[in-house]
Write a structure and sequence with these properties.
366 residues; alpha+beta; four-stranded antiparallel sheet; three-stranded antiparallel sheet; 11 helices; 7 strands; 50% helix; 16% strand; Membrane-bound metal-dependent hydrolase; transmembrane helix; membrane
């Protein structure tokens, strides 16, 4: 998920009552909710190296065990040598509650990252397999609304804070209203939700009522996540059955979310020799529920030329990340141009999910 969602989930846990467990609780929760993304520094270097490292060891079981201790220790040291030196009268942060909050928030990060179709290598460094929940789009505004409601009510007090939340609210509302992917009823529901949050904040509510709002929003958020996961599994079964009715037996079906609309799924069907792409819309009538969203794309075993391209050092990370690969070989005067794609993200000739390897006639990378 995006780091805004991670941060809001961490802050929401604080507003739901956990911030009363110890001083610096909310800070710990927000930091922990983002901490596994310390591998994000790799984007500053080679993009393939970034793919090789991203959502790997810092998101795996070893990190889930170690990172909370590092975070709790760092927060406790900061409290002892910075905060309380400046304000010795303040209550000291307590290490063991900080550690429990660190475990909770760090775990939330890996859980949310598993929920989308990018995947996460949760068993690293012992096993490099990718795991996918295929439930939430990597940027989900409904998560922002549910996780952020109580946070806005509690935090939007200073002018700069009000301005920041206002900018964020306008930006996310624009994203919802000006995309064709969001049906009209969901646009109306979004406006009602934003208006309700703004109204409660303007009226002002007591901190205990904020906790109640946070609890209700949190339960709703968890139910939403469970429903999205169950919806993707339902979509896979329905599309598989629909394909069988067309006389085709799929080898595998994977349903992923589309942005802003929880009632649709982008479905990839693995058939002999090809991928087929179906958009499932539960709000459409029976005749329009299943729609081909893209022409079929070949799915073939890699040829010797493709195998040489897959072995090229400059795409090691990309090859490790591939889930649904397709290949295209373009013969040139002095060699080959091999286009590698993952049809989760790339179904045209370029864009995210696409890498190109140039080979000479001896199948060596150039």
């Amino acid at each position: 998920m995006d780091n805004l969602a991670h941060s809001l989930v961490g802050a929401w846990m604080g507003e739901a009552g956990l911030k009363r467990k110890t001083p610096l609780a909310t800070l710990t929760l927000v930091l922990g909710a983002n901490l596994p993304d310390i591998d994000g520094f790799t984007v500053l270097g080679n993009s393939d190296t970034s793919l090789l490292l991203r959502r790997g060891i810092t998101h795996g079981v070893l990190a889930l065990a170690v990172l909370p201790w590092m975070l709790a220790g760092a927060v406790k040291l900061g409290d002892t040598y910075l905060r309380r030196r400046r304000h010795p009268e303040k209550e000291p942060a307590r290490f063991w509650p900080l550690l429990l909050l660190s475990y909770l928030s760090v775990f939330s990060h890996t859980l949310l990252d598993w929920m989308n179709n990018y995947g996460v290598r949760v068993l690293m460094p012992f096993d490099g397999r990718w795991f996918y929940g295929d439930a939430l789009f990597i940027i989900d505004p409904w998560m922002w609304l549910l996780a952020g409601a109580a946070v806005v009510m509690a935090d939007a007090r200073a002018r700069w804070s009000i301005a920041g939340w206002l900018v964020l609210g306008v930006a996310t509302t624009g994203l919802i209203l000006y995309t064709d992917l969001t049906p009209l009823p969901l646009k109306a529901l979004w406006l009602v939700g934003v208006a309700a949050v703004a109204s409660l904040r303007i009226r002002g509510i007591h901190s205990l009522r904020i906790e109640r709002v946070a609890t209700v929003c949190g339960i709703t958020l968890l139910l939403y996540m469970v429903a999205m996961f169950a919806g993707s599994r339902l979509a896979e079964r329905q599309v598989a059955e629909w394909l069988r009715q067309q006389g085709t037996e799929p080898e595998r079906v994977a349903a992923g979310p589309l942005p802003a609309n929880p009632f649709t799924r982008d479905v990839i069907a693995l058939l002999p020799g090809r991928y087929e792409f179906i958009e499932l819309d539960w709000l459409a009538g029976e005749s329009g529920r299943f729609r081909t969203s893209h022409p079929p794309i070949p799915r073939e075993a890699p040829s010797p030329v493709v195998q040489a391209a897959l072995a090229a050092p400059e795409v090691k990370g990309f090859v490790n990340w591939l889930r649904f690969p397709t290949y295209r070989v373009e013969e040139q005067a002095d060699g080959y141009r091999v286009v590698l794609q993952d049809v989760r993200y790339s179904r045209t000739r370029s864009g995210i999910g696409t890498e190109v390897v140039e080979l000479d006639r001896q199948l060596r990378p150039r």
